[in-house]
Amino acid sequence: FSGFTGNSGAPVKGIRVVVVNQDQGAAFGPQQVNFGQTLTDALQKNMGDLLSVDVLTDESAAKARVIEGKAVTAVLIPA
Q1: CA-to-CA distance for 62 and 43, rounded, in angstroms?
Q2: What is the mean pLDDT of residues 56-70?
Q3: What order do you get walking across the sheet with 73-77 strand by strand?
Q4: Which of the residues 8, 18, 29, 46 could staple to 62 if both were Cys, CB 3.0 to 4.6 A apart?
Q5: pLDDT digits over 31-59, tens only?
């Protein structure tokens, strides 16, 4: 991961990641909060060019993408 400093940009880009969010959320004070969605949003929006994130609803499909080499890893957020 060298090269993060300066204007050269990240040397690693577009790491394919699949996210399956099974979190249904919970009441947190007066509002409903889904921490799984918060994590998913952070991976999609805050990781810049480093990650290429696909969101799936099926855990088996996510695992298949990793096995087939279509994704480097799957992040499974349990209910």
Answers
A1: 16
A2: 96
A3: 51-56, 15-21, 73-77
A4: 18
A5: 878 899 999 999 998 887 889 999 999 99
